[in-house]
Write a structure and sequence with these properties.
By secondary structure, the chain is mostly helical. It has one domain. It is about 85% helix and about 0% strand. Helix 1 packs antiparallel against helix 2, helix 1 packs antiparallel against helix 4 and helix 3 runs antiparallel to helix 4. It is elongated. About 25% of the residues are buried. This is Membrane-spanning 4-domains subfamily A member 4A.
Length: about 150
């Protein structure tokens, strides 16, 4: 039995991209990696906002800029995935035993940072999927969006 086709609105995908960008921005601040938080996540946020705007205003330049930003967002998500994976691998390893309070606090921070980086990895994979999906849907509907302008 074939699976039913999933109806997805570009506006909802744009909202998802914007929310992922905002959440990853906040995680970037928590991990004190401001360069990652601003550079990579601004691409997610902008591509989501352009996807929403291209549905609302149907301007050909807006649709093309949404396509370009979704490509940039996909590349940024792939770069973020590689960087975060390298960070997780670099941080992996056995932790020293907890002997005094200072070492215990350091071990706790390391464990929390590992968990945060793994969550960011999951969000990066999700962002790759959503940005590709948004690009494909915008590409398929670009003629109908441009015809209504």
């Amino acid at each position: 039995m074939p699976l039913p086709a999933m109806k997805v609105d570009l506006k909802s995908l744009g909202t998802i991209q914007t929310m992922i960008g905002a959440v990853m921005f906040m995680f970037g601040i928590v991990t004190q990696n401001i360069t990652f938080a601003v550079s990579v996540n601004s691409a997610f946020f902008i591509s989501g906002a352009l996807a929403i705007a291209s549905v609302d205003y149907h301007h050909p330049r807006l649709v093309k800029s949404s396509l370009v930003m979704n490509l940039i967002s996909t590349v940024a998500a792939i770069v973020a995935l590689v960087v975060l994976f390298v960070d997780v691998v670099r941080m992996s390893g056995e932790l020293p035993p907890c002997q005094d309070l200072a070492k215990c606090a350091l071990i706790l921070l390391t464990v929390l940072l590992r968990g945060t980086l793994r969550v960011l990895l999951v969000f990066s994979v999700l962002e790759i999927c959503v940005s590709i999906w948004t690009f494909v849907l915008t590409w398929k509907t670009r003629d109908s969006l441009e015809a209504t302008s």
